[in-house]
Write a structure and sequence with these properties.
heterodimer; A: about 160 residues; alpha/beta; 4-stranded parallel β-sheet; 5 helices; globular; B: about 230 residues; Rossmann fold
């Protein structure tokens, strides 16, 4: 039974070239989006590994999504396509584990899509709110530890 | 190279029932190249098992490690300290690595996380095809470099059989994929090389005693043994 009152904690793996800039734009445009999301910047969503998605969930995130460039417009050509495949694979692992695959997702947007960034944040937060708390946060796992551990692995090699 | 596929999670969970301290051990050689059991996959499996336990409210200690090669004693020495911390080791290596682990670490309960399936080659990224049956008596010289032992569904020595049609075998793969007829390939290759006379020779029954049918095999190179 979904708990509609709970506040989902969501990790977003955002590409430096698009979604991260789109988040900036959303801020400049004074658009409202939920405070439920915690963003981790990647040099490209192609940097996203399956283990990053699992670690975020394991640490208590209720949902995780990757936000990369529009298909065909990846700065590194195909990084966002790799990310989509990895997200799809992670969904199959969640099915195996008996956890809702909808807790992970892949979105595409350009750096000019501030409004789309806010829309996705709203849409995904509402999706997770409908699903209810992750079965992995039963012990009250503190999500605050997630960005540090996940980001440490995810951001290796990020250009300075 | 040796290829393997991870066992279904349910099978692994059944094996691990009641075991709360488990080390997932990857192998960074063949099974890493076939994206099944390297360090990366060991970390993913360990995470999956922790997630499952956490979702069920079970308290477990599941970690991962990886050996450069689980099938050689020297590399097992490098992970021995880690293995000693765990009563149960879930090995993601091929059958050789799993057995090496079980022999080396006699106190550990070593379990297989993968099914070793073939000696294959990556035809393209993420696609592997069986190419060798390790039969112990290679006949590729006479077959245009195409192995009928593993590429012919019947392992015929004199083909093709009546089930060959338009270059395809009557048998389909497990996912209904079409299998090229090995003997059609051999026929075309030998004709292209002008060696079609080879096709007129009758190959006698193969001596399978040199394969695993002859019992466990052992290879010794006296000249290479340490003095």
């Amino acid at each position: 039974m979904a708990d509609h009152d709970f506040e989902p904690e969501i990790i977003v793996f955002a590409c430096h070239y698009c979604a991260y800039a789109a988040a900036d734009l959303a801020g400049s445009m004074r658009l409202q989006y939920p405070t439920n999301i915690r963003m981790i910047k990647l040099p490209c969503t192609g940097k996203l590994e399956i283990i990053h998605l699992l670690k975020a969930l394991e640490a208590g995130a209720d949902g995780v999504y990757a936000a990369g460039c529009m298909e065909g417009e990846c700065h590194y050509l195909k990084g966002n396509l790799w990310a989509r495949k990895r997200v799809e694979y992670a969904k199959t692992l969640l099915v195996e584990l008996g956890i809702e695959p909808e807790r992970v997702e892949m979105y595409n947007m350009s750096s000019a899509m501030g409004a789309r960034f806010a829309e996705v944040a709203n849409e995904f937060t509402e999706r997770i709110r409908q699903l209810g708390p992750s079965p992995l946060r039963g012990d009250g796992a503190a999500l605050d530890v997630v960005p540090a551990t996940v980001a440490a692995t995810a951001e290796e090699g990020q250009p300075t | 190279m040796i290829t393997a596929e991870r066992k279904p999670l349910d099978e692994l969970l059944a094996m691990l029932e009641g075991k709360d301290k488990v080390l997932v051990a990857g192998c960074d050689t063949c099974v890493a190249v076939c994206l099944t059991g390297g360090e990366k996959e060991a970390e993913i499996l360990a995470s999956e098992l922790r997630i499952k336990a956490k979702a069920e409210g079970r308290s477990v200690q599941i970690e991962h490690t990886s050996a450069i090669r689980q099938c050689e004693w020297e590399y097992l020495d490098m992970i021995a300290a880690k293995v000693a911390e765990f009563p149960v080791v879930l090995s993601m290596a091929c059958g050789i690595g799993i057995q090496s682990m079980a022999e080396k670490f006699a106190d550990a309960y070593v379990l297989p996380a993968v099914n070793t399936n073939m000696l294959g080659m990556p035809q393209e990224h993420a696609v592997w095809l069986e190419r060798c049956g390790a039969c112990g008596d290679c006949l590729l010289a006479d077959t245009g470099g195409i192995c009928p032992v593993v590429r012919c569904s019947k392992s015929l020595m004199n083909g093709p059989c009546g089930g060959s049609h338009a270059g395809l075998c009557e048998v389909t793969g497990p996912n209904k994929e079409e299998i090229p007829c090995a003997w059609a390939l051999i026929y075309d290759k030998l004709i292209a090389q002008g060696r079609q006379d080879k096709l007129m020779e009758i190959t006698p029954p193969k001596d399978w005693s040199k394969s695993s049918s002859g019992g466990p095999r052992k290879m010794v190179r006296e000249e290479a043994k340490p003095v």
